[in-house]
Write a structure and sequence with these properties.
This protein is an alpha+beta fold and about 325 residues long. The protein contains ten helices and 15 strands. About 10% of the residues have low confidence.
Length: about 325
């Protein structure tokens, strides 16, 4: 008996129209402060920004508009694309508006941009995401893009979209992709007066130079004096600003930066591995941001820092 393959022509015809959602990958080769209309002015780091949008008609024209430098500034993304060094568009043709689902998918992979960006109807959300690396090199992004590109409604049991399937798939790929990063970093420090505004006076020049600090620690050191530590500083402008602010590289300590997925018991696992190796830490600072965590570990010598790097590379 011959089997008949039923082709859902009505579904295919509906899905191939010039409409749907899209990703824009916007690259900034240098950090910039950009005014985003009424949303405000924001510091945008060097790297890649992913924007999620939709156009339920004339999708190709919408994407072509985004790529133009000269245009009326109508949407939040227009303010960013006019400053972009490179723009890559990835359309997802569909009869359904999926930008909210796409944004939710990206939020578990990338760092979120300014609240309300591209999502004025829901100020707590954002349709802009940041990645220091090209998203096209990230496996979790590939999983999301494939899932939504080949997503069709159920038609006579032949074509089926499992809307929850991508979550577990992307999670597994994401966790594999997000191996722990362990890097040696320079920490900068300065003595400060024990009075209001002393820390702000050191940080303001760094902010003006575009520094995106992940680590700031200030404490009393002696009566009427204190000390502040900051990291990281990148580029000639930030280093020059640090010197003007009285900050210098803390040569009496060595530091490691550990970044990766946040997991229960990670702090105990990390410090336990160092303890078992007989490594004494000078200090530790940790923070969890969403599903990601960052540790800064300080040591008294380069020898201890190098040994700690080797131990943690095996333990994590």
């Amino acid at each position: 008996m011959k089997k008949v393959l039923e082709i859902p022509r009505d579904c295919l015809q509906r899905e191939v129209h010039d409409r749907g959602s899209y990703f824009l990958i916007v690259r900034l080769k240098e950090a910039k402060r950009i005014e985003i209309g009424r949303l405000g002015t924001f510091h945008f780091r060097k790297g890649y920004y992913l924007y999620v949008g939709s156009a339920m008609k004339n999708l190709s024209a919408r994407i072509a508009r985004h790529k133009r430098k000269r245009k009326p500034l109508r949407w939040h993304i227009d303010y960013l694309t006019t400053e972009a060094d490179e723009i890559t568009a990835l359309p997802i043709r569909s009869s359904r508006r999926q930008e909210r689902q796409l944004a939710e998918a990206l939020s578990s992979i990338f760092e979120q941009g300014p609240p309300g960006f591209g999502a004025s109807d829901c100020p707590s959300r954002t349709h802009l995401f940041y990645s220091p690396q090209d998203p096209l090199t990230r496996k979790p992004f590939h999983a999301v893009f494939r899932e939504f590109c080949f997503q069709f409604p159920r038609v006579h049991g032949i074509l089926q979209s499992d809307r929850t399937k991508w979550k577990s798939v992307a999670k597994n790929i994401k966790e594999a992709d997000m191996a722990y990063s362990i890097k040696k970093v320079d920490v900068w420090s300065a003595m400060i007066a024990d009075r209001p505004g002393a820390v702000a006076a050191r940080l303001e020049p760094l902010a003006e130079a575009g520094a995106q600090l992940e680590f700031v620690l200030a404490r009393r050191d002696k009566p009427r004096t204190g000390i502040v530590f900051v990291a990281p500083l990148k580029g000639a402008a930030q280093l020059q600003a640090a010197k003007k602010a009285g900050l210098s590289k803390a040569d009496d300590l060595r530091a490691l930066r550990v970044e990766g997925p946040d997991k229960k018991g990670l702090g105990a696992r990390l410090t336990g591995a160092l303890a078992d190796a007989g490594i004494n830490m000078r200090g530790i600072s940790a923070a969890a941001i969403g599903r990601k965590c960052i540790f800064y570990l300080a040591f008294d010598s380069q020898r201890d820092a190098t040994k700690a790097h080797r131990v943690l590379s095996k333990a994590l």
